[in-house]
Amino acid sequence: MHNPIALQEIIEKAISQISYPNQPKKLYDPIQYIMNLGGKRIRPILVLMSAELFNDNLTPVIDAALAIETFHNFTLIHDDIMDNAPLRRGEKTVHEIWGTNNAILSGDVMMVEANKHLAKLDSAVLKDALETFNTTAQGVCEGQQLDMEFEQRDDVTIAEYIEMIRLKTAVLLGGAMKLGAQVAGANAQQTELIYQYGESLGIAFQLQDDILDVYGNPEKFGKQVGGDIIANKKTFLMLTALQLISPEEKKEMFKNYATEAEKIKHVTELYNKYKIEELANKEAERYIQIANHSLNSLPVLEERKVELKQLTQQLLNRSY
Amino acid sequence: MHNPIALQEIIEKAISQISYPNQPKKLYDPIQYIMNLGGKRIRPILVLMSAELFNDNLTPVIDAALAIETFHNFTLIHDDIMDNAPLRRGEKTVHEIWGTNNAILSGDVMMVEANKHLAKLDSAVLKDALETFNTTAQGVCEGQQLDMEFEQRDDVTIAEYIEMIRLKTAVLLGGAMKLGAQVAGANAQQTELIYQYGESLGIAFQLQDDILDVYGNPEKFGKQVGGDIIANKKTFLMLTALQLISPEEKKEMFKNYATEAEKIKHVTELYNKYKIEELANKEAERYIQIANHSLNSLPVLEERKVELKQLTQQLLNRSY
Lengths: 320, 320
Hints:
Two copies of one chain form a homodimer.
Chain A: H1 4-17, H2 25-35, H3 42-52, H4 62-82, E1 87-88, E2 91-92, H5 94-98, H6 100-119, H7 123-151, H8 158-183, H9 188-215, H10 218-221, H11 227-230, H12 236-244, H13 247-253, H14 260-273, H15 276-297, H16 306-316
Antiparallel strand pairs in A: 1-2
Helix pairs in contact in A: 1-3, 2-6, 3-4, 3-8, 4-6, 4-7, 4-8, 7-8, 8-9, 9-15, 12-15
């Protein structure tokens, strides 16, 4: 059993050993660039951790981890185009450096690269792995589509929002863990439980992100606190508040503010008045409970679950 | 053995039976739209024809044909964004109707759909099929990248141009035929020969397209005759002419013309003076020879090759 740091090292080493073609340079340089922008490598770590629940031999699982990480980075390139984002992890986005057309095409070829990693898996698990990977990839695309559509809508329900973050974020965590388990030889019941675990964890994780965006410690959060409020983003907090506040407060919420800081302050006060943080935390805890229930139900020796339980505690205890 | 019309009917029926998810509608409507814009279905027909060289049972090959056609249509959506093209087969392009972001994402999920078709193949052939498909997809992306880069360059050589059309167009024809053969149970030597056949045919086909763009019968060609000349496109004809014409003629070629018709007339006269059509035809014939040599070398009963030989003659005798 490896701890997350050891697993991350395995992944970083594997990524550094991927060899992309040299030409056309503008097609492959963006792939090198985004794959080496860093990040916590949570998804491929989860692939490996899930595999280690069932099997000590990680060698055959590396390709699955690389497929997931490559796919994830491909979605970042294309999402950044769609979101018109200038920065990713503090650095220029691919389309900012190479242009939109180039970013589209490099993303496309990255999807092929992800599939190439996957195609290296053993024939005995290949079919199941492809099924998991394709279902996951499709869900992520659907989630991004819903996210874009929600920006244009004023009647998004909380249930729709949860479904959107399930698809956009949580399906990939669940899919990563299911894939790791399948490659490690887990049976269908086991892979289903680990999928449920990952997906529920993913939803809790995203809800926490929504909370941290408002209540996070600016020094530790890494993004601008209040960013979602400024962007009028329909997060779980916003949608819950909209159900509770008075019409006058709603009008007040969306008025023009003199400064961004004033808007953040005012909306946060409204959130406080209606205990939105507490409600959001309760919802996150509900998903953590589902996640823990799935992991506890998994017929695997408790000692094999230790690292995974620690990592998830760590992820979920991100500091405010 | 089926003739191309019968095969096209099989493909149209299979396409009509694909069921995409209903939601999100804006994600899947573009897929329905582009898949039903028509077209000659050359690539999936080639998948099936290639399979019929080796095996009478087409049922297991349909998924491979659908994977190829879905992938091809995905590239059309993304290429049309990159080329800023308003029309595709006489109808509005996907990004014109649904917007660029939506077109990017629908294309992405189409790539997943292509992989889902592929993943249905029998486990015995799956690994080889994935290898062929991924190599093909990667080549097509590289070809599109080179095509975009060549627009910005003034020193493209004829050899570079041939390599670009090989990747952008011919690799997919070769890959389609290799895939069909693999699924039908052909051995490695056979699949390599049929790949060579398809790739060489694809290069010849594109060279013919270059010729038809200048010398085609406007009523039969389907596109504006002279379009490449107006766009200063670096086709085989243009690159060959640039090697032969005098510096004065080159200056004359790129001067400002009063009308597009005048430019087309003048450049065509230059092409005529230097027998560019004949030179291009010779190059196309060279690739047809290579294609025929590959097909003749294929250890398969001659009677099984009849339909394929007829189709390719038909494709290559497109009227001027």
